[in-house]
Amino acid sequence: MRYKISVDTGGTFTDVVVQDDQGRVVIGKSPTTPDRIFEGMRGALSDAASALGITLASLLGDAELLIYGTTRSTNAIVQGTVAKTAFLSTLGFPDILVTREGGKFGPHDFSYDFPKPYVARRHTFEIVERISSEGEVVTPLDEAQARSVVRRLKAEGFEAAAVSFLWSIANPVHEKRMGEILAEEAPEIAVSFSHILVPIVREYRRASTTAIDASIKPLMQNHLRGMQSDLRAAGFKGNVFVSTSAGGCTYVDDIVEKPIHTVKSGPAMAPVAGRAFAAMEKLGSDVIICDTGGTTFDVGLVRDGELKYTRETWLGGQWMGHLMAMASVDVRSVGAGGGSIAWIDEGGLLRVGPMSAGSVPGPVCYGQGGDKPTVTDAALVLGYIDPDYFLGGRMKLDMAGARQAVGTLAKELGAEVEKTAHAILNVANEHMINAIQDITVAEGFNPAEAVLVAGGGAAGLSIVPIARELGVKTVLVPRTAAALSASGMQFSDIVFEESGNRVTVSGRFDSAGVNAVLEEIDGRLTRAFNELTVAEGAETRREYTVEARYLTQVWELDATLPVDRFHSDADVEQMVESFHRAHERVFAVRDETGQVECLNWRGRMTVQLASREMAREAPRAAESRVAAERTSYFGEGAVSVPIYRGDELAIDQDIAGPAIIEEPTTTLVIYPGSTARLTAGGNYVIQL
Amino acid sequence: MDASAKPAAEKEIDPMLLSIMANRVDGIVREMTNTLLRASRSAVIASARDMSCAIVTGDNELLATAEGLPVHIFGSHLQTISMQKLHPDLAPGDAFLHNDPYMGNTHPADHTILVPVFVDGEHMFTVCAKSHQADTGNATPTTYTPYAKDVYEEGGLIFPCVRVQRDYKMIDDIVRMCRRRIRVPDQWYGDFLAAIGSARVGERRLIEFCRKYGKDKVRSYIAQWIDYTENRTIQAIKKMPKATIKHSGAHDPLPGLPEGVPINCSIEIDPEEARIEIDLRDNIDCLDNGFNVCEACAINNSIAGIMNCLDPDIPRCHGVFRRVTVLLRDGAVVGRTKFPHSASIATTNVGDRLVNLTQSALAQLGDGYGLAEGGVGMGAGWAVVSGKDFRQDGEPYINQLFVGGNGGPASPTADGWLTYGIPVAAGLIYRDSVELVEVKHPLHMKSVRLHPGTCAPGKFRGGPGAELIYGPKRDPMTVAIPCDGQVFPPKGVNGGHDSPGARTFKVKRDGSEERLPGVAQVTLEPGEWLRGIDNSGGGYGKPVERDPRRVLHDVAEKWETVERAREVYGVVLEEDESPLGYAIDEAATATLRQSMAAG
User: Fold this and answer.
1) How far, in Å, CA of A622 to CA of A362, rounded?
2) pLDDT, tens digit, for every residue of A418-428?
3) Quick one: pLDDT band at residue A480, thresholds 50, 70, 90?
4) Which of A331, A571, A603, B202 has the fewest C-beta atoms under 10 angstroms from its C-beta?
5) A window 16-75, beta carbon within 8 A of B
């Protein structure tokens, strides 16, 4: 037997998904051990091995591939435990990371301070140099000054440096020379260069991305190399890949050079999983993916089978946090989850969040000291969760405590406890509906024509009313819903992405210049491919996109290039048409007379690594069995609802709501008017 | 309940549904905003975000505004009132262009598209999409004409709520007029389409909303939501002390106005009745220039200053107007601008001063109330640049930059916001990228840096201003700078210091500098530079009461110096090996602060 392992080390739990060459899939789970990541990984792997009925040693010995996803970098950034990092900027522009790009929440809110820069001002060093927007050297690099700065970095114990000069993308000569000086004087300092990492126009985005990358380089190098050698020592002989924020995976050796691609790589995998499951169940190629955690709700999008990418990923919140501008799978997060706290404001309105009880102390019903009513408490009061079968019975929930907490609000509102609990769920749903609308609307995407894939432990509690509100007709809850990101890695491909910059306008299109950029991109993709040792004979695909806009517009849109080089006016016209279509889709208008201004060019190579199928379920009982009955509330008074256990359901048999299906790691609430069925693939399809 | 409240709707909806419906309507405004922002052409809209959307009820009460600019949104209902008055034949498919400051718009550069939303023949809502145009056909190539003596000299096209669509079809006559008179017509037309698209998106969504809930519930929601907002406002006012505050301010001197433009307000706070009344009637008459603040801006900006000091969670909707009222006078410089006086720069300049006036007035109530004055003046970083671009075969260019920016006002709990801009923008506006500025215009930026030592000290300090230096690459470049705050810098409150003030210089080829007046227009030859220093916001509270750890951090981060920490803040710092590089000498600080407080 050969195994393929994916590991998702979250902040709290490490999830493992193992698939054998028959397509059989098991999940393993264990607490994450931040000090030595392999300990927690070993726990989860053992869990999975025992589910397969084999030893850990034989699982590791027979595994040919392990895909590793980690929140290590994300956590380090959020907690500020990154390397001591210097920001080297062009003389005259020391505050690029301080001022960012403006914008603020709350027009009348002056109660909070301006956020701190990613790299402190006192760690920012201006280098005497300047390139013009046309790529000419305006001020030559002052080598002596540059060298003295580097010596100072060395003396002051800096561990990393981000080099991001103005217009290095038009002419990288100064960034390159700075790199040589750094290598000569202080080879121990980890360095990132903006013109290599993220060659795009807009200095803040480039500098911020470069600074984040440099700051996590030392720790991610240690972390990944350590994990790799621990795996080897434990008997693993296969290939190790690391999952990336582009929704693919790549070699450890590659990622340690650009560790920023591991940031938010976990959430990026959920859309990959959603796309695969939707395809497996033949539910189409337009997919909305929702992943519900304890404190956040993530939304992603797949259109025509393609992941949606963004160059605007905020760490720590839009405007308040720090921007990463490399193309990443677009996943929008809102602070909403089972732990969100319900409260009543001064005007008597019921509100849910943004405060959260998190996992500690957690909801009142966890009995760990939480005393404020949360969304999970409301779901318990409504009878959606079995207090004795939470996490497969591993945790007993305190129903009385939940009722009392929700009851306090009910008294203030003058409503019944159940009605209040129902309202809490509905108000909480609003945040998620908004998040889904924000991403779909911004893309001109009609939710009614898509399938919604729901993942995360709390996915099944509210997904039906959310989908209904959006006009979605079909919801898919994969059997591995509780570990959606780890499942996504099972389907991920090796993805290489390169980009280059050449500003040109369709009316006076610089074919030669653009072709040179594309040539350069292709060269780098080919080199990366040639270094691959696995996936021989695998299917590969190259796609090219341009970030463009109508001349005088400010924000770019991605348009797919219909050609890989520009040889004639007809090729340019095709590109222009592709842009018109993208603009019309997103903004509902096209400007036939408008010129198209092209800024950044991208190439992406995908090497298919995974089979996109999972095994069918073993034959089951012919009839689904009702395991129990429970009193539940759906807004209109109490009803007795049949409870099913997932492993006692017949394949392809419709279960009409109201009903509740319980799985060890998730619960599906089938609301009145909807029906659910277990497919032969082991997934749940809910029709609304 | 207030007498002006409408009769109770037939069926009350519960607070849970109220919350859900309000959230849905807010989502509609955000979708409109996103459409307008992303599809617009001109930098002033798409880059600076100088635009706002709002939903007004069929009976002209402001309902939802999302994250619209304060200066734009409180007056939207004035525009819908004029739409109903002028067009008794309103019908589905109509759209109106409104930029008339004598009839509820903010200033002529703000083109507003109004679309009445009908459900089953009933006019339920009006959606408003407002955006600052790059050009509106003024006599000179700028949307700010400070010295136009009247609307004729200003010269732009005024649309007093003119129909531009009927039956969802464009009335091409109007479009042709605009294309003839507005510079860079394609840019204008793109922005015009974006605004219409935005309004139509709002219309579509509101109709779906009414279909889903039924008109009765929607009516109940409207009534209850406005009541809810009113209740929140009542709660906030009841926490304030009873007071009548008189306060004055002034815009910098202008040609013919050596004392500047004085502005006065009297604010009456009545916590028992839960009312705030802002009286702006005691002000001078309209001026023969473009600085007049029209009705919409006078209401917007004086209320914005008050809202800046109330619970920021209170939704901006008609319920606020039931409790916070503004008294205006016909023909006053801040009031109902008398035609044909120009209100060309009504939204900024004197308008900015009005926001500062009311928010700093409330600081007279004592520590914990009000705000300092925010940084004012559209200086070098917000100038309008124009000329010919050698890289584009000499094609002309004109645009407003958004690179620099003033610091924000200190508050009772926080330091001033760093990318504040001006009071009417309140930090919502985006900054241009230096690289994009250099691609779009043939100019070279030499430096953009926050100016150390500009933060006005206080228990909480003002946000620092920026220093910018830029000049043309090859051909001469004209720069129009409608600045303020160079003679009368933003003031601190309750012991907080004032900003050191904004300054603009022309740097000649020999390196010598010539100080320019606040409102200036210069042509720079290649080799010449413009250097501007923006304002800090004012400080709040006494500097000697500032948390010494904040002072330490400011010194470590080079906002302040060790010397000023000692002299202004009474904090004694010593260099050490810690990550911040300094430690607080607690004993010396205590002694020094004591003697400073005494002396």
Assistant:
1) 40
2) 999 999 999 99
3) confident
4) A571
5) none
Half-sphere exposure of B397 (CA within 13 A, CB side): 30
d(Cα B448, Cα B432) in Å, to the nearest integer? 12
Which among B475, B461, B478 has a CA at the least distance from the CA of B399? B478
Q: Whole-angstrom distance between the N-terminal and C-terminal Cα of chain B?
A: 52
Q: What are the C-alpha distances in Å from A428 to residues A57, A425, A462, A657, B413?
A: 45, 5, 9, 22, 30
The closest alpha carbon to A470, from A637, A332, A299, A303, belongs to A299
User: Cβ A102–B413 below 8 Å, yes or no?
Assistant: no
Q: Do B34 and A555 touch (CB under 8 A)?
A: no
Integer Cα distance of A116 and A322 in angstroms: 10
- Give residues 414 to 443 of A whose Cβ lies within 8 Å of B: 415, 419, 422-423, 426-427, 430, 433-434, 437-438, 441-442
Is B411 part of the contact surface with chain A (CB cutoff 8 Å)?
yes
For residue B7, pLDDT over 50 is answered with no
Chain B segment 36-55 residues within 8 A of A by beta carbon are 37-43, 46-47, 49
The whole-angstrom separation of Cα B543 and Cα A360 is 39
Q: How far is B553 from chain A (nearest CA, A)?
A: 10
pLDDT greater than 70 at residue B73: yes
Q: What is the pLDDT of residue A616?
A: 62
Q: Compute CA distances A236 → A15, A66, B449, whole Å.
A: 18, 9, 53
CB-CB under 8 Å, A202 with B436: yes
Contacts of A351 in chain B (CB under 8 A): 19
Buried b or exposed e, range A125-134, using 16+ CB within 10 angstroms: bbbbbbbbbe
**pLDDT of B171 above 90:** yes
Chain A contact set for B307 (CB, 8 A): 108
ipTM of the complex: 0.93
- Phi and psi (nearest 5°) for A249? -140, 160
B227: helix, coil or strand? Answer: helix
Residues of chain A with C-beta less than 8 angstroms from the C-beta of B68: 107
| Shortest distance, CA A97 to any CA of chain B (angstroms) | 11
Q: Does B450 touch chain A (CB under 8 A)?
A: yes
Number of H helices, E strands in chain B: 15, 22
State how far residue B75 is from chain A, nearest Cα, in angstroms.
Answer: 16
Q: What is the dihedral of CA B31, B35, B38, B39, to 10 degrees?
A: 170
Write out residues 217-236 of B within 8 Å (CB-CB) of A: 228-229, 231-232, 235
Residue A517's pLDDT is 93
Q: Among residues B335, B278, B345, B351, which one has the least CA distance to residue B309?
A: B278
pLDDT, tens digit (0-9, with 9 covering 90-100), for A361-406 = 889 998 888 899 999 999 999 999 888 887 767 788 999 999 999 9
With residue A585 as reference, give the H or E element that holds it.
helix A569-587
Quick check: B5 pLDDT over 50? no
Size of interface A-B (CB pairs under 8 A): 216
Question: Tokens 């004197």 label which residue?
Answer: B350
CB contact under 8 A, A114 and B371: no
pTM here is 0.91
Q: Are A427 and A354 in contact (CB under 8 A)?
A: no
**Mean pLDDT within B99-124:** 96
Secondary structure of residue A480 in the 3-state scheme = coil
- Taking alpha carbons only, the member of A478, A454, A492, A531 closest to residue A68 is A492
Cβ partners under 8 Å of residue B491, min gap 6: B249, B356, B360, B372, B373, B498, B499, B538
For chain B, the farthest-separated pair of C-alpha atoms sits apart, in whole angstroms, at: 77
> Cα(A659)–Cα(A647) distance, rounded to whole angstroms?
15
DSSP, res B3: T
Average pLDDT over residues A304-310: 87
> Which token pair is B499?
């900003």
